[in-house]
Structure formats: C-alpha cells, structure tokens
Design a protein that fits this description.
4-stranded parallel β-sheet; globular; 4 helices; disordered N terminus; Rossmann fold; alpha/beta
C-alpha cells in the first residue's frame, strides 16, 4: 500500500453533492475492501457531500441490501475543507468537489462520472452499484500494487 510522504496512512475521500447515493455506496464497498485486505492500519476512508441530503436514498438502501450491505443506518454528512485537504485521493462521483478542494492541494482528484441513482429504476441503480463496486476494487488493486 502506498503511503503518504510523512508515513501516515492514505486517506481516500468519496465525495458527491448529496452524499446520499453514489458516495455512500463507494464508501460501503471500500469498507469491505479495507476489511477483506486487512488494511485498517494503512488506509482511512472519508465520505461526505457538498450539500448533504437528509437521508440515504431509499433506492440505494434497497440496492445495497440486495448485495448484503446495510446502509440504512448511514446519514449523509457535509465533507469539510480539512478532510479534503488531508486526503491523498478525492474520488468524486460525477459531480465536482471544486468548492471544497483548496487551490494548491497536493492530492489526486478522480471523477468517476457516474449517473445519480436517485429516482432511477432498480435495474439502473444495480448497474450503477456494480460499476461502483468494480471501480472501488480496481482502486484498491492499484494502491495494493504500489505497496
């Protein structure tokens, strides 16, 4: 696992506007990867939104339950400037984190360009969920290869 230059663990932030769909799914899959790869001492996860919703979208809760992950107890939250500034990777979901990413920030920003699952039929949400799972796994593979 790649580590930051000061030896601290890597921080990955999954960010979207409402923190009620895509970023919640990404965070949940990243938690699974973190546990499966026993990387708890090497990696820190953050999730948040720039304008968080009141709750995780019901269609997202249902879709994640279909793959055995319970996100019903998650609450969307606002991501802070300090969390973004302290992150090595900021993964946005098809929306920008420009309003929270400071000028001169040294981390890497990746925009996954995913469709918003809110209000979509279950089969489309499942497609978005599966793409997020694949992207999270690929990100962990990449970071693990650099170890």
């Amino acid at each position: 696992m790649t580590e930051t230059t000061d030896g601290d663990s890597i921080r990955i932030a999954f960010v979207c506007v409402q923190n009620a769909g895509r970023s919640q799914m990404a965070h949940a899959f990243a938690r699974q990867e973190l546990d499966a790869r026993d990387l708890g001492n090497h990696l820190e996860l953050v999730t948040g939104g720039t304008r968080p919703a009141d709750h995780v979208h019901d269609v997202v809760v249902d879709s994640m339950a279909d793959v055995g992950i319970d996100v019903s107890d998650r609450t969307p939250r606002e991501v802070t400037f300090d969390e973004i500034q302290g992150s090595d990777y900021v993964i946005t979901m098809g929306c920008s984190a420009d309003d929270v990413c400071p000028a001169g920030w040294a981390g890497e920003n990746r925009d996954w360009g995913l469709d918003d699952p809110d209000g979509r039929p279950a089969d489309e949400v499942a497609r978005i969920r599966d793409e997020i799972r694949e992207r999270v796994s690929a990100l962990f593979d990449e970071l693990d290869a650099d170890r």
